Amino acid sequence: MKKIKNKFQYRLLISGIILFLPGVLFGGNTIVSGLLCEYLHNPLGLDILNPRMSWQIQTPESNFKQTAYEIRVAESPVMFSKKDKLKWSSGKVISDQSVNIEYQGLILESGKRYYWQVRIWDNKQKSTSWSEPAWWEMAILDPTLWNANWIIDKEKSPDDHRPVYFRKEFACSKKIQSARLYISSLGLYQANLNGKKVSADLFTPGWTSYNKRLQYQVYDISDMLNSENAIGVILADGWYRGKVGWERKGNYYGDKLALLAQVEVTYSDGTIQQVVTDSSWYVSNGAIISSDIQDGEFYDARLEMPGWDCPGFTSVSWVSSKIFDYPKNTLIASRSYPVRAITEFKAQKIIITPKGETVLDLGQNIVGWVRLKVEGQKGDHVVLKFAEVLDKEGNFYTRNLRAAKATDEYILKGGGEEFFEPHFTFHGFRYVKLEKFSGIPDLNSITGISIHSDMPLTGTFVCSDKQINQLQQNIQWTQRGNFIDVPTDCPQRDERLGWVGDAQLFAPTAAFNFNVAPFFTKWLLDLAKDQLPNGMVTYVVPDVLMGKRGGSAAWSDASVIIPWTVYQAYGDTGILVKQYPSMKAWIEYVRQRAGEDCLWTGDFQYGDWLSFATTLPDYPGATTDKDLIATAYYAFSTDRLAKIAALLGKIEDARKYSNLALKIRNAFQKEYITPAGRIVSNTQTAYAIALTFGLIPDTLVSKAAGYLAEDVGKMKHLTTGLVGTPLLCKALSDHGYADLAFMLLIRKEYPSFLYPVTLGATTIWERWDGQKPDGSFQDQGMNSFNHYALGSIGEWLYSYVTGIGIDQKNPGYKHFFLQPHQGGGLTFANAELKTLFGIIKSGWKLEDGQILYSCSVPPNTSATVCFDNVNVQNITINKLPLQNDLSVQFVESDEKVKIEIGSGNYLFTLPLR
């Protein structure tokens, strides 16, 4: 670990005494960089009328604080120096805020690009230079500006699910200044221009509640145009028209594939040419025979049409398209990360199973597909099947896919080496079975392609235990595989739905691993759209269960808890404003269901789904009363709504829901807690929820925590399901039982976090015993091996083991806590978190009877470092002793040192406890 040798100025706060303690000074200047607009770098196609801007500060100085900023926005960088040409100049604003600053200038116009830059002042009243310019470009803000028509294949019947190909040729007669493609579809599309893909984006236009919100994308095609051009677009069923959910209902949103496209070419002389979808476009079938998200893709290379998306192509099989009457007032510009192919995996080995199957192992369970490389005769037919696991005999296992066929097929055209990747399907798999392969396959015959929403990786965690490191990797790979435009429960079987409960329970971990703010913002808008008029929140979003299923505690509470989680992780009040009506409607729905006694009882609830169960006659399992969970979540979400109302200045609502939360808490205590502090459902989940949600009377907290510890100590393992697992280790460690929390973390036998790791798992399982100790599998009807909910322990690794904690009063890591903890036999643990301000680092190691703790605090932020059970005289910071005459603040009987630090890099040394 690199130690800082320069002299510091520093600030230390212990029991209210403030000292000034360093910043490390190096050569160089302070600059503003990392400019983002709505969390995105130079976003193309925004329909947000007042976009928000964020920036980071790069500085050699420690304890750096921004004291003011100035933003200027113009239609061109050359206009920055002309004040009368600016769209907005904020002037010098006295503020330390550098995240999500809202544009407040002149009205923005459709299709216009706006450049912006910022400069700041530090706490010495010194200003930086202006940042390098960044930009955003507006989308189509007025629906009447859509001159394109929806078009369809007039000859396609509702039962014909073959993808369709559209094409249109056009000429560009003058020098081009810029060109844009605005495009959407009913179904999924892939757009090509002059023989090349327009974008690397996949599964566009994305999955939304299509009949209420339909996304379109905007692409810069300026460099792709020639004097003669051809645009070609392939449409396939996707979520709109394909098999969705376990009911495998097709045509859920509609029975017609339709295209909407508008090309706008701006010439250097200022004139504009439009090419829009209308009946002059031609349509045909092609080499893709079928493509379904659940079932896979069938591709016949003999039917390829070379040059179909290039100018000059002719074929008698193409017919005119037909204009389709479909509204445009539901169109919205994309707001989240696109799905893309991110990582490639080479096959690790070829397996011949006991049944004689040829199977290739990628070594990692991923979501996506494979690139097939094959050579053979025209008409040869290769079949690829996909599986997550092999059975205990070593054979290919697909029963847990249920009705999903998960099969890709390729018919060769012959004439040399051929490559194939599917277009509109994905699979969850580690193993690929080859059937009818031409020749003898080798490790280069397939390459695994991992796809997911292209979220920036923000969190890393590494420690001295390799199996815990693998657990962390499994959590992140599971998040990748299930964050494909919506947060799905699983990526492989006939389901793949946006279950709200799984997302809610995993959201804090998700926000550590990746920047999920745009991802959840987009998805939550659909949650609100699909919410029923009575306030009930559906179980899955987008809702493909026809509004028939919803309203379960912990699941539907996603409407309140996920916006709160995003606010805490990113300091984003905008999401609270957008989702507030949805949150309030949900709480009002539950209030009606619970009645005057404030106990939510009698309704269907999922409860602590997949909690530990046995076949023992005297212990059937850890079953927590569902009504208890429902009432607990009612209290928690109502309390969060009250806090949100206060933040948004809704004083009456804040008072109303604060009082209601108190009434629910009192009702919960009366109904479910005995005078001795025991909870009537004597389960780990019941205690973890009640302790974490603050539902236990202060005088009984220690007793309740003791009962929880007693159960964990007796069982020597966890018994929680999806609801209890995110809270269990936190409940233990927050109440003095960290040793038991670490015991649960490092346990390797079933049930435990590491049990799947010991069996070679590379993703998180749906069940604790998806694969049993004897090698057999759990119920094939519900046994995903890529299911993130039980990976919610990840949040505790970051926040407790390495101690990176959110300050609820200063969200988004403007101020945060650093309180690392040792245990579980670990000798070191390191974490990094890329926040909107910069990188937080927190790491410790045991060395020569001491704890060496290093941390980094980004510019324009501050942190409180907390050490438990240590005397201040025994701490050094960057090799400098803390002054011995300072009084130390005690918490109960344990010494707790709190140190306030500004931005910079720090190394603390303290004795090993």
Task: Walk me through what this model shows.
By secondary structure, the chain is an alpha+beta fold. Strands 22, 23, 27, 28, 29, 30, 33, 34, 35 and 36 form a ten-stranded mixed beta sheet that branches. Strands 37-44-45-46-52-48-49 form a seven-stranded antiparallel beta sheet. Strands 4, 6, 7, 8, 10 and 11 form a six-stranded mixed beta sheet that branches. Helix 7 (626-647) packs antiparallel against helix 8 (651-672) and helix 11 (725-734) runs antiparallel to helix 12 (738-746).
In brief:
Helices cover 20% and strands 30% of the residues. It has 14 helices and 52 strands.
Please give the radius of gyration in angstroms.
29 Å
Oligomer type: single chain
Quick one: biggest sheet?
A: 10 strands, mixed
Overall average residue pLDDT = 93
- Terminal residue distance: 21 Å
Structural class: alpha+beta
Low-pLDDT runs of 5+ residues are: 1-27, 883-893
- Strand % is 25-35%
What is the global morphology?
Answer: globular
Please, how many helices?
A: 14
Helix content: 10-25%
Topology:
Elements lengths: L11 E3 L2 E3 L11 E7 L6 E3 L5 E7 L7 E9 L13 E2 L3 E2 L6 E2 L10 E10 L11 E5 L11 E3 L11 E8 L4 E11 L1 E6 L2 E2 L16 E7 L7 E9 L1 H4 L16 E10 L4 E5 L5 E3 L3 E5 L3 E5 L18 E2 L1 E3 L6 E3 L5 E8 L2 E4 L5 E18 L5 E7 L1 E2 L5 E2 L9 E5 L5 E4 L6 E9 L10 E8 L5 E5 L2 H17 E2 L1 E2 L12 H14 L3 H14 L27 H13 L2 H22 L18 E4 L2 E3 L4 H22 L3 H22 L11 H9 L8 H15 L9 H10 L3 H9 L8 H4 L35 H8 L2 E3 L8 E4 L9 E7 L4 E9 L2 E8 L4 E7 L7 E2 L2 E2 L8 E2 L2 E8 L2 E8 L2
Parallel strand pairs: 4-11, 17-26, 23-33, 43-47
Antiparallel strand pairs: 1-2, 3-5, 5-9, 6-7, 6-8, 6-10, 10-11, 12-25, 13-18, 13-21, 14-17, 14-19, 15-16, 15-18, 19-20, 21-24, 22-23, 27-36, 28-29, 29-34, 29-35, 29-36, 30-33, 30-35, 31-32, 37-44, 38-39, 40-41, 42-43, 44-45, 45-46, 46-52, 47-51, 48-49, 48-52, 50-51
Helix pairs in contact: 3-5, 3-14, 4-5, 4-6, 5-6, 6-7, 7-8, 9-10, 9-11, 11-12
